[in-house]
Amino acid sequence: MQARQLPSTEKKRYDWVPILLYLGIVLFGWLNIYAACYDEMHASVFDFSRQHGKQLLWMGIAFLMAICVLLIHPRVFSSSAYVIYGIVLILLVVTLFIGTVTHGGQSWIDFGAFKFQPSEFAKFATALALAKTISAIDIDLTLPRTRITLALMVLIPAGLILLQHDTGSALVFLAFLLPFFREGLSHYILLVGVLAIILFVSALLINKFILMGIILALCLFYLFVWLSKRTSRTYWHTAAFFVVCCLFTLSVDFTFEHILETHQRNRIYVLLGKVEDPKGIGYNVDQAKIAIGSGGLFGKGFLNGTITKADFVPEQETDFIFCTVGEEWGFLGSIVLLAAYVYLLVYLIGMAERQRSTFSRFYGYSVAGILFFHFFINIGMVLGLVPVIGIPLPFFSYGGSSLIAFTLLLFIFIRQDADKNALI
Amino acid sequence: MSKQYAHRSGIVKIIFIVVGVLFVLRLSMLQLFDKEYKEKAKNQSLRIITQYPSRGLMYDRNGQLLVYNEAVYDLMVIPRMVKDLDTDYFCRNVGITREDFISRMEKAYTYSPYSGSIFMKQISKEDFGRWENNLYKFKGFYISKRTLRIYDKPIAAHVLGYVGEVNEKDLEEKPYYKRGDYIGKSGLEASYEEVLRGVKGKKVMQVDVHNREIGSYMHGQQDTMPIEGKNLYTTIDADLQEYAEKVMANKRGCIVAIEPSTGEVLTLLSAPCYDPNLLVGRIRGANFKKLNEDISKPLFNRALQAQYPPGSIFKVAQAMIALHLGVITPSTGFVCDKVIGCHNHPSARSVQEAIKMSCNPYFYYTYRRVIQQGKYKNIYKDSQYGLTVWHNYMNRFGFGIKLPTDLPNIKSGNIPDTAFYNKWYGKERWAFTTIYSNSIGQGEVEVVPLQMANLACIVANRGYYYTPHLVRYYGSDTSRNEEFYTKHETGISREYFDIAARGMYDVVHGAGGTAHKADIPGIDVCGKTGTAENYGDDHSVFIAFAPKDNPKIAVAVYVENARGGGGTWAAPIASLIIEKYIRGEVKRKDVEKYYTETNPCQRLPLARRIKKPKRR
Question: Which residues make Cβ contacts (< 8 Å) with residue A112, sequence separation at least 6?
Answer without folding.
Answer: none
